[in-house]
Design a protein that fits this description.
- Helices cover 9% and strands 26% of the residues.
- The protein is mainly beta.
- The strands form 9 sheets. Strands 3-4-6-5 form a 4-stranded antiparallel β-sheet, with no helix packed on it. A 3-stranded antiparallel β-sheet has the order 8-7-9, with no helix packed on it.
- Strand 18 and strand 19 form a beta hairpin.
- The relative contact order is 0.06.
Amino acid sequence: MEQQQHGLLEVGSEADLAAGQQPTRHSRSITSGVLTVACLAAIGCVIFVCREQQRGPRPSPIAAQSSDAFVELTLLENPAKNLSSKSVHKNCSWGQGNCNATRCCNNPGMQCYQQNSFYAQCRESCTPGPDPTHWDGLDWDCKVLGARAAGSSKCSAAGEDCSQSTCCLEANTRCFKKGPGWAACKTECWPWAPDTSDSDEHFWTCDKLGSLAPGASPWVAELCSADGEDCRTTRCCKSPGKQCYTQSDDWADCRSECSPGKDPARSWEPAWGCEELGTRTPAGGAPPPAKVASWVPEKCAWDATDCKGSRCCIGMNKQCFAKNDDYATCLESCQPGRHPEDNNETWSCAQLSPRSKGLAIKGTPSLWCWSLFQPDSYEMGIMQNQLKQGIGIFDCDGFVTLSTSEPTYIGKTPDSIKVTSLHVSDGGDHYVCRRYRRECGALH
């Protein structure tokens, strides 16, 4: 019997890999029978050849070739790699690789389209003319090369799970993983912290799935047409989100949208044909959401409280900074080193959360509203009507009602919160300034 040493890699956990720990190599002895097995070390495989005397070859799930007399079984050194390769073709192109020679794509649903005789790319679709997302401004002739790959290549919109598509529709967004079974397209992601616009307070791993959805390439600003210019020749637009539309054989313009026929506001002009020339320039991408979820006031940390567990802050322009492994709090800024206001103790100032943008639960920007009224006048009816409908100051993220009378029950908000006025004496606006830390001048 012969023995051969094979190297095996053992990984402790994903955390070990994230920490940069290299896989451990172990030795393992594999005994093979010399009478039935020939080891071909140069290609890392073992081939069994057996002759069938009486019967034909029996079906085998790992049979590579078969004939009336022989069954050949090939075991690759990496079986998992062999199994995954069944769904792809070794000679086809991946991602944005040049498919001019391969004429086929491995990514599901992709088709190889030609730009010119020197370059082709796997894409979901292709429009003749320049493509503002491509790295050069050369025209695409969009000649189809080969067959479309099986499957779907539809990318995900905002708010959809992108864990399967691993790509995003909106420019300058990327698919980030939250945890098993969910990922979303976002412009930014803070690892091991919650997203305050998300439906719950669970942390995100922020693993990047796929590449950044492309925006407009730098050449667009130089070569494409500005608003109000004839774009028949360039067939592309400088302005984000604009498309070149034809009006007639003599004019085309960059617009966000186009309705065929006469423009009612410019009746003297010829009718618009609205044929699209080239590809729409991607929009700049939406900013990160400023509105926060309803769980934020309860789960996130207020000033002077520990944010190490929640890793999120309430307030404007606050961020969770760590003092040490045991304590963190929400601050506008933090300098590593000794802090005189904390008995000269040392702070690491490690950033544990994204920066907060205010408690904008109902809309953005965040609004805090107040009203001074008289409960024993017609103003009480106005306040009660606004409260019932959730309008006026009651549509703000936070509110308070004030009067010179004794505290008076007004009613309930649409979400059943009881509202009672606060008593203030003459000069109540100054009380508001002191109580709620507002600039007095802003209340007059």
